[in-house]
Amino acid sequence: MTRFLTVTCAAVALAAGAYWLTGSNPNLPNPLVGQAHAQEAEVDTSTIIEMVQGAEDAPVTLIEYASFTCPHCASFHAGPYKQLKEDFIDTGKVKFVFREVYFDRYGLWASMVARCAGPDKFFGMTDLIMKGQQDWARAGGPSEIVEELRKIGRLAGLENDQLEACLQDAEKAQTLVAWYQENAEADGVQATPSFVLNGEPVENQPYADLKALIEAELEE
């Protein structure tokens, strides 16, 4: 698991904006320009759409907290998630909610690209981003990483103008960070991937064990 420390929106803005204040490439997306010196403030997170798969009235709700830069999260989506989807999500037994965690600006950018096409394409975009994590996350500096994320977006059918608008949306970036902090604090999330099963926290574990927990909930 990858551990993280909860930070304020202003702190994330500083981390994300550092390159842009000192870098020389004006064509790179800077979703947090203007936020670097912001003070912690109330942010309306109601505009953020929950990304959900499965039946709305499913008897079990499973929330996953994941980072797009977390290798363990990529491993979960390459294997256990596919089994979970086949066994429980597609059969109407589990409502699956995916919530992003932001360790760094790269994970935030990946989230903004994944959300760019809207809820209908989000999970397909997530699959592409997780599958290619070792390539885009290790592509080099910010310019190389963001270009790899653009490529994933274009592969999914997004136009360049649409991608740039999403990546440059400073208000959306700040709101996403506030939303993540709000959720992580409420559910006591300390690592990724982490899960909340019908309101109870569940650590990352072998799929057989997670399956047994879900089946126990279905029997109640």
Task: Tell me briefly what this model is.
The chain has 220 residues and is of the alpha+beta class.
Please provide a written account of the structure.
52% of the residues lie in helices and 13% in strands. The chain has one domain: Glutaredoxin (3-Layer(aba) Sandwich), CATH 3.40.30.10. The protein is built from 10 helices and 7 strands. Helix 4 crosses helix 5, helix 4 runs parallel beside helix 7 and helix 4 (105-116) packs across helix 8. It is of the alpha+beta class and 220 residues long. The strands form 2 sheets. The chain has a 5-stranded mixed sheet with strand order 2-4-3-6-7, with helices on both faces. The protein is globular and about 50 Å long. Residues 10-219 form the Thioredoxin domain. It comes from Lutimaribacter marinistellae. Keywords: Disulfide bond, Oxidoreductase, Redox-active center, Signal. Pfam families: Thioredoxin_4.
